[in-house]
Amino acid sequence: MTLSGILIVVMAVLFAAGVYAILERSLTRMLIGFLLLGNAANLLLLIVMGAPGRASFYPSTGSGTGGAERISDPLPQALTLTAIVITFAVSAFLLALIYRSWQLGQQDIVVDDTEDVAVRARGEAVEEVLDDEVEVEDADDKDATDFVGVVTAPITVLHHRDLAGIHDDAPTDDPDRPRGGDA
Amino acid sequence: MNALVPLVVTLPLLGAAIALITSRHRRVQVLVSIVTLSVALVISLVMLVAVDAGKPLAVAVGGWPVPFGIVLYVDRLSALLLVVSAIVLLAVLLFSVGQGAADGDDETPVSIFHPSYLILATGIFDAFVAGDLFNLYVGFEILLVASYVLITLGSTESRIRTGVVYIVVSLVSSVLFLAAIAMIYAAVGTVNMVQISQRMAELPPSTQLTLHLMLLLAFSIKAAVFPLSFWLPDSYPTAPAPVTAVFAGLLTKVGVYALVRTETLLFRSDDVNVLLMWVALATMIVGVLGAVAQAELKRILSFTLVSHIGYMVFGLAVATPASIGATIYYMVHHIVVQTTLFLSVGLIERRAGSTSILRVKGLMRAAPLLAALYFIPAINLGGLPPFSGFIGKFALFDAAASQGGGLNMLLIVGGIVTSLLTLYALMRAWNLSFWREKDDAPETETLQRIGYLDAAPLATVTTERRVIPRIMTAATTGMVCVTVALTVFAGPIYDVCARAGASILQPVQLTQLTEEVGR
Predict the structure, then answer these.
(1) Mind listing the pLDDT tens digit for each residue in B416-426?
(2) pTM of the prediction?
(3) Is the distance from CB of B219 to CB of B266 less than 8 angstroms?
(4) Could you tell me the domains of chain A?
């Protein structure tokens, strides 16, 4: 028996479709992409096994014409089984993740990194603070020494009971709590 | 002695099971985790001493004859990394215990944290002792699955967002790795690393190159080497401080370890070394430029993490015994220092309520000990003499310079520039958050504080001094001491690294492996 060409074609198609789907922003499509990729890799492991033969637990000196050389290579099968189990566990985790993402944001897409966006949108004022040389010179001008009249104040966080202008109405991610307000 | 090898993998796994069963009893969980990792540390130390004195340890799991079954293999490199990662895991565990106790375990659901953490340890240890490629894959998967849980701990919105990126990227690299294993098996008919290295030389060069590049691609994603590193600064900073610390220290280094094995054992030909040189240069420069642009401490550190992976790739690309030894020393140094820095940033976050260097100020006066805990590892990472960062970089440049060549010189210049820029980024953070007085902020305070409330709407309102639990400070101080010890005992430690570098470049024969198992 020889290697099946159909298997190779199927594997290639699975890889291509998987790559296409995993590049999407939607998490569900990404999951589908991962499943396709995982199956493609498993199929590749099976193809690597070479020409299929008898099951490897057959006695090699059986009644038929079979010998040790006629049995399938068992190692890729073991590898495939392990890989299947791992794929299974990871896709279960991914499903839970997608569900949680949907629960939180009502949409299952990958969004841009907020910090990256913040760095891009940074204004002149922030750059000036970051350029700490200016900062240090200012401090030197104001006081003869750094240690005059400074109280080691604790770090405080203001809240709307300290300042009427602040409203703590940002959304919470606790499903049991109502939106806004401060409990 | 050989019997100790499987123990480093099975003990944390057993500990994870016990921690899961006892999830209702926090104290028992903590005790189980600490005891397990301490025992793992002792075992690793014993193995390091034994391996350094004599021959490598090898165990054939299940008693299968050598090339067919799974072989666990511990040489100097593995043993050294086992010791370092056990120390780091233990210190970070203590840190997280302190943090959990202080938070009343609101943020970190401990019932999940401890089992996942131990499974992460299992995966890391398994990857380090793996003697065949598929076991390495399994080790990677164990640690990755545990890291998926840890990076989305508490499943808040930002952690889910960044976790998705991390998970998808890791999955892609795992699929690539699996496909590479299949290809290698098709080409050489084995997954045993020693046997692969023997048979690889018989293949045509083009086939070798294809297999080599596939493995490099998979491991480079995990190690965050430049064009494949963009996932890291996005995903690491959002996780809880101890999780980020252990990820930054260890996970990328497992990738680097796999790269070391690929370059020194599996593929002995130097057909991609020039490519690796350029990749290393790009990793160093682009990574550190990212760090300079950031204004958030954890992200600054994440970018320096990426940039310093470049040094290790550089050492691998030079591929002389001296440079491999220097790479190993640099790995050890970087694991410890990067973890320590992330821990001290965790303390800063706790003390000041933020890690943005635009907001945090006046810490020098408010927390002098914290200042020391940040400053020492920071100048160490920046490569100032006499610290271990300087020793590692110097050894690396020395090895490269002794080999000569224009590209090596270019890389050395790039490395020095990177080191200075790292120092610049870290010292700017130091100037702004520690040196700057609390009062000289030009912006209106109120606007800033409203901004802070937007960023953390659920933060508990507090005007009293934030107390850092002693155990967190103690864990961080302990890690700082380890970084200093790497400098003080640099001689013996560097010698071990140099011997490890020399020994992994010597070809191993399968018969040798059989002998090791037989002992």
Answers:
(1) 999 999 999 88
(2) 0.84
(3) no
(4) 5-105 (1.10.287)
